[in-house]
Amino acid sequence: MSGNFRGAALMVAGMAGFAVEDMLLKRAALQVPVGAILVIFGSLGTLWFAILSLARGDRLVSRDLFHPVVGLKALAEIGGRMFFTLALAMAPLSTVSALLQASPLVVVAGAALFFGEKVGWRRWTAIGVGFLGVLIVLRPGVDLSLGALAALAGMLGFALRDLATRAAPKSLSNMVLGVYGFLALVPTGALLLAFGGPAAWPEGPALGLIATASVVGAAAYYALTAAMRLGEVAVVTPFRYTRLVFALILAALVFAERPDALTLIGSAVIVGSGVYTLLRSRRETQRAAAQGDG
């Protein structure tokens, strides 16, 4: 079995895991405040990533943790996770998942604007088409909801997190960065609870949903990182979009959602643009490598 095949299989498994995580958190968000979810999910996520980091032999404490980019990543993680969880509570899972698929397009655009990475007109066109897909899903001026706007804000937060991860010191592994990204969610959730007034602590069923989501999410993240190591990035990365397929299935089975035509069309436009952008990036990388060898 080739590395690319195993990498693609792990990526699909990871995306299935993230879709299940989203479904579980949505069910929890219908019962308990977002602040409580962030405190519990952040605490458990910190624990799981700390275990994974120590198993890899990573150091959890380092001077590089005080790098400004690490702080920016933590803030982006807070914003992305907070708004994404709010969106899960207010909007259909299918809509939230569709908008999340635009994150890679934002990352490519951000890499060009902030890191000086070369992006040709074809990829800029694909990015523009992808953003058109976002507008189709959002439907501004027609059926724009606060839940959809929260999903958009969450997607932008996650994209900024990914960009900050690129700029973070190389001595810090993704696992260690994950530890402190999740740790930052704990005080954020506590502040939301403090300013949101008295709230009952989640009972057994809701607590079980959040705990299960944290375990599934950690396993999915591990599968994602393993996939990126086993296969070629340009081959494996397009399989990230299978997350939307799993999300649509779970939305229909668990929440009885039936996405309308515009949501499906917008989703297809976003995914198509993202896949094209990734494949085009692969071609440009191969071309640059060939010129370098020559």
Which descriptors apply to this entry?
globular; 0% strand; 13 helices; mainly alpha; single chain; 2 domains; 294 residues
Care to give the gist of this entry?
The protein is mainly α.
Model description:
It is built from 13 helices and no strands. With 294 residues, it is an all-alpha fold. Helix 2 crosses helix 10 and helix 5 crosses helix 7. 79% of the residues lie in helices and 0% in strands.
Which ranges are low-confidence, i.e. pLDDT below 50, for 5 or more consecutive residues? none
- The SSE string, one letter per element, is HHHHHHHHHHHHH
Count of domains? 2
Percent of sequence in beta strands: under 5%
Query: With helices defined by DSSP (H or I, 4 residues minimum), what is the helix count?
Result: 13
Report the strand count: 0
Major beta-sheet overview: none
Q: Mean pLDDT, rounded to whole units?
A: 87
Distance between the termini: 32 Å
Q: Give the structural class.
A: mainly alpha
Give the overall shape, derived from the CA principal axes. globular
Rg calc: 19 Å
Tell me roughly what share of residues is in helical segments. over 70%
Please describe the topology of this protein.
Blueprint: H1 3-29, H2 34-56, H3 68-90, H4 93-100, H5 103-115, H6 121-138, H7 146-167, H8 174-183, H9 185-195, H10 204-230, H11 233-236, H12 242-255, H13 261-293
